[in-house]
Design a protein that fits this description.
alpha+beta; Nuclear Transport Factor 2, Chain: A; 2 helices; about 45% strand
Length: about 80
């Protein structure tokens, strides 16, 4: 299934982010990615967790904030 990026939420240190995405069928999900560096200077983003499907982008973002401690903690100030 193909997805379109709707919103990206970054961690304070910019080493993680969550993408809120929409499918062509109108369903939503979030994907958590983390920044990886290799010893030879190469770097890339790799997915570390994915959600199930949600009915709206707001529901997907709410699910990410509830499920991911770093996202919940950064927004509790």
């Amino acid at each position: 299934m193909d997805y379109e990026l709707i919103k990206r939420l970054h961690s304070e240190d910019r080493l993680r982010h969550v993408d809120i995405m929409r499918s062509h069928q109108g369903l939503f999900r979030f994907v958590e990615l983390t920044y990886i560096t290799e010893g030879d200077g190469h770097w890339f983003w790799t997915p570390v967790s994915e959600s199930g499907l949600y009915a709206s982008a707001e529901d997907a973002e709410r699910g990410a904030r509830l499920e991911l401690p770093w996202l919940r903690d950064e927004n509790s100030n």
